[in-house]
Specification:
The chain is mainly α. It has a single domain, classed as MFS general substrate transporter like domains (Growth Hormone, Chain: A, Up-down Bundle), CATH 1.20.1250.20. The radius of gyration is 21 Å and the shape is globular. The N terminus and C terminus are likely disordered.
């Protein structure tokens, strides 16, 4: 049940409550700190294509970079849950800045593909995971303050929107760098951002919040008995759905790169992403106004259905004007899919494993994107941009099937993440018990 004071409050008022919990600085530095991930994922394709002349090689190296992040991401989250975010994020932020500088140097020197792949793996493996850790931290702040469920939902909406905007605006930065002279400029910016903003995120006073919430949770005997059990099936199902959404974005990215190249406007690839990002951001921010009765699983099914339908026109798009129009409309589906996926993850995992759970969710999304960048890049070179878009559209259809077949179960206090002293009625959301 929503709190009486927050039930009638509009989206702006809800966001004000979230900012009151975090302070105005944390969202800014966490957004700038997660932006480099999106820059280097899409930027790898353009950077390696610029230096090697091969779109397929760019896809392979980008895939290696993303797979490095996928392999290490959950481990970073687990370390942060156990040791605290401060020391873990500082160490990985500085290591990632160095790895990005090495990767950029290797690309500019035209080193052989195996060495580029190795540099890509190291750059991906050292990503500090600021996005999922920021989400875990802010949810912990809300839980510690005893915030109503609608405020927690707004936290996830804001964090999901920032992730989504970073995933689609990062490539725009790469595109602008390419227009300015070279996509390598974007990599240099990414290295600076992760070093400065990653360190700032780690040193922010809220960094110790997840540890305090974890300590309270571990002091609950009931949670101590359930904390070692396997995660609910729903957590894994949601990861599968997010992986398919990642495949959709990967196919879309490969298709945009291929089509703009076919039409002789490859320097506009990042700008096309920017058009998609504007629509996605608008839809994402507005999701805080959705009523609580509009449950997460219903949102998931509608979001994946919309992704499957709106991705189809991309397959037959053959002009720059058509690409801008179709991609702008299509951009409306990303925020609902990502925000809902992370919301379902927060419902499913215990609070003391929230950092790990969120990094797993991001790894599923990035992993799907990574594999597709390599496969769809080759398909685009052989069969044209439509083939890459078709891969993404098929993945969107499978994501809808996963959402449609998912059968949420009732969860316990140990799983939903509530802690002693924060017991309240939950909103009427499928898959979450009404009283916890």
């Amino acid at each position: 049940m929503a709190d009486r004071d927050t039930a009638p409050m509009g989206a702006i008022g809800m966001y004000r409550q979230v900012v009151a919990l975090t302070g105005p600085l944390l969202p800014v530095i966490s957004f700038l700190g997660r932006l480099p991930v999106a820059i280097i994922q899409f930027g790898s394709v353009l950077l390696i294509h610029e230096t090697s002349g091969s779109l397929a090689t760019g896809g392979i190296v980008a895939c290696a970079l993303a797979l490095g992040q996928v392999a290490m991401g959950p481990y970073v989250g687990r370390l942060a849950d156990r040791l605290g975010q401060r020391s873990v994020v500082i160490a990985f932020s500085l290591a990632n800045a160095v790895a990005l500088a090495v990767y950029l140097t290797a690309a500019l020197l035209g080193l052989p593909t195996p060495l580029l792949v190795l540099c890509g793996v190291l750059a991906g493996a050292s990503v500090p995971g600021i996005g999922p850790l920021a989400r875990a931290r802010t949810v912990a702040l809300a839980r510690r303050a005893g915030a109503p469920e609608r405020v927690v939902g707004t936290v996830l909406t804001l964090e999901g929107t920032m992730d989504d905007v970073s995933f689609v605006l990062g490539p725009a930065v790469v595109g602008l760098a390419a227009v300015a002279g070279h996509p390598g400029y974007a990599f240099a910016l990414a290295a600076v951002l992760v070093a400065v903003c990653g360190t700032g995120f780690a040193l922010h006073p809220t960094a110790r919040t997840p540890q305090s919430v974890r300590a309270r949770a571990e002091g609950d005997p009931a949670r101590a008995r359930t904390g070692r059990r396997r995660l609910p099936r729903e957590a894994y199902v949601v990861r599968v759905g997010l992986a398919f959404v990642g495949i959709l974005l990967g196919g879309c990215g490969a298709g945009i790169g291929a089509l703009t190249q076919e039409l002789g406007h490859e320097d506009q690839a990042g700008l096309v992403y920017a058009a998609m990002g504007v629509m996605s951001a608008v839809v994402g921010v507005s999701m805080a106004a959705l009523p609580e009765s509009f449950g997460l699983h219903l949102r998931w099914r509608l979001a994946t259905a919309a992704a499957a339908l709106l991705s189809l026109p991309l397959v037959w798009t053959d002009s720059m004007l058509g690409l801008y129009v179709v991609v702008t409309v299509f951009g409306a589906i990303f925020a609902p899919n990502l925000i809902t996926g992370f919301g379902l993850t927060e419902r499913a995992v215990p609070v003391e494993r929230l950092g790990e759970g969120m990094t797993w969710a991001v790894s599923a999304f990035v992993g799907g994107q990574a594999v597709t960048l390599a496969v769809a890049g080759r398909l685009a070179e052989s069969y044209g941009a439509g083939a890459a878009f078709a891969v993404g559209s098929a993945a969107a259809g499978l994501a809808f099937v996963v959402a449609l077949l998912a059968r949420p179960g009732r969860t316990s206090p140990a799983v939903t993440g509530r802690i002693p002293g924060d017991v309240r009625e939950a909103p009427d959301v499928p898959g979450v018990s009404e009283k916890v």
